[in-house]
Write the structure tokens for this entry.
Amino acid sequence: MTVTVTQTDTGFTRSVVTEANGLYVVSSLPTGPYRLEAALQGFRTYVQTGIVLQVAATPTINVVLSVGNLQETITVEEAAPLVDVRSTGISEVVEQERILELPLQGRQVTDLIVLAGAAVQDVPNNKSMPGSIFTGVAGSLPFGVAYLLDGAMHNNPYDNLNMPLPFPDALQEFRVATSGLSADNGVHSGGTVNAVTKSGTNMLHGTLFEFLRDKRFNSKAVFAPIGPDGKRLDDGLKRNQPGGVLGGPILTDRLFFFGAYQGTFLRVTPPDATTIIPTPAMLAGDFTAFASPACNRGQQVTLRAPFVNNTIDPRLFSPAAMGVARQLPVTTDPCGNVRFSAPVHYDQNQIVAKIDFQQSGGHSMFGRYMMTLDEQLPAWPGSGNVLTTRPEDAAQNHRAHSLTIGDTRVFGSNVVNAVRVAWNRSRAHYNLEPFFGAETLGI
């Protein structure tokens, strides 16, 4: 019996001949919708449509032929769900519909990994690449999870977490394997996240999108400071996320392209940071106002002996401490209260490009490149302000590149050679604004 499978989106076709006992295997197929046809002389042709092959799946499709003319066809359009009876592990596929339709804060597809169950997500440290997540699977540590993208390793060697994954519109689907991992899921013992990017098809298709968050759509914080106009200040939030995807044929049934872009641009000026700094009077040795009931919840504070009348001789102050105080802003508040903000100026750009080539039913190739650029400007460039020169407000410049080339060749009915060559590179730069040193303090 001859079994022919055809990917309906691209026209990709592969045929195999069953063994004497009727068994057949069609391996290393690309994901997507398929049509299966089985033909044997003296029997009616069997056709089954609506088959959707998911990532890392090995479903079993049993074919039953009826005696009749070969020109007669039995078409099955609604069959039982595909069942993978070859794998002993437990896994969950998050398909494209859920990736696109479920609400995602920030449109990070990695947040959907927890849908698989047995997965717990934590907050990564601030030195990880943007987009990296701390997700433990089945009790494993976060760095015990393997990430695959288009069949190639996609872990960051820096911290063994994931490299950035494509944004939702550029991702076909992904599978989370939580236990009973097969032999092809090595290197990491905790679990496997196997993702596949989209590809072009015989039809030109694309989407455009724009997601917007703005201060005008949000309510103001209940305890936000009040501005000169008597109204509470907003956080200045403005977040734009434009992008789009486009895919289609270069040569029908042979060569396809797919390209995608997403930009994320965030601007925030929160006015709610409060601290206390020395006032000019305090630096002159006069702590009268600072020790008054107005600055101490209605209680009078008195400095201990030998200081009298809440005053200190400025000559007793450490020169180094006075040097630090000179780096602080000047406040007119008698209690030394000062409000300041650390503005956020963050940009991310992600590009995905993919080419698929089908030389024949037994030989296919693809190349995929993805680049993620993250840039955050310093909160107050050139200010020299101690309050705003913090590690979390440092300028950040991150680059993540991922290149994968794949080649799949079929040699007969039971030999398949699938090769994946990947090149991943990440770079993370944290640049603090120029700061004062010991020589400035006279040390």
